[in-house]
Automatic annotation (TrEMBL):
The protein, known as: Mitochondrial cytochrome c oxidase assembly factor
Principal subcellular localisation of the protein: membrane
Pfam families from the UniProt entry: Pet100 (PF09803)
Domain of life: Eukaryota
UniProtKB keywords: Membrane, Mitochondrion, Transit peptide, Transmembrane, Transmembrane helix
PANTHER family: PROTEIN PET100 HOMOLOG, MITOCHONDRIAL (PTHR33968)
GO MF, one annotated term: unfolded protein binding
GO cellular component, one term: mitochondrial inner membrane
Keyword Mitochondrion: yes
Residues passing through the membrane, by range: 6-25
Length: 87
């Protein structure tokens, strides 16, 4: 059977394997696992309005978008009623 040297070797392997594994996968992460274009650029993200004028302009855009959607919905319902389909 094995002696003390074998036990010391086994202990070293048991100890060094997870450390080596963590070292290999834990170093140089930016170049090893990086995906180009994964995160959006600053120009592509939403901008939070800060000034009063920007907030008002954003509100007007939202209201205009809602009006357009409501008009489309009303036109679709009118077209369904004209086709004979009652809701």
């Amino acid at each position: 059977m094995g002696g003390v040297n074998l036990e010391v070797f086994r202990f070293g392997v048991y100890l060094m394997f997870p450390i080596g594994f963590m070292y290999y996968f834990g170093t140089n992460l930016d170049s090893r696992f990086a995906v180009e274009g994964f995160w959006p650029k600053a120009e592509e993200t939403n901008k939070v309005p800060h000034s009063r004028d920007e907030i008002k302009a954003e509100y007007e855009k939202i209201v205009a978008r809602q009006r357009v959607l409501m008009e489309r919905r009303a036109m679709q319902q009118a077209a369904r009623r004209d086709d004979g389909g009652e809701e």
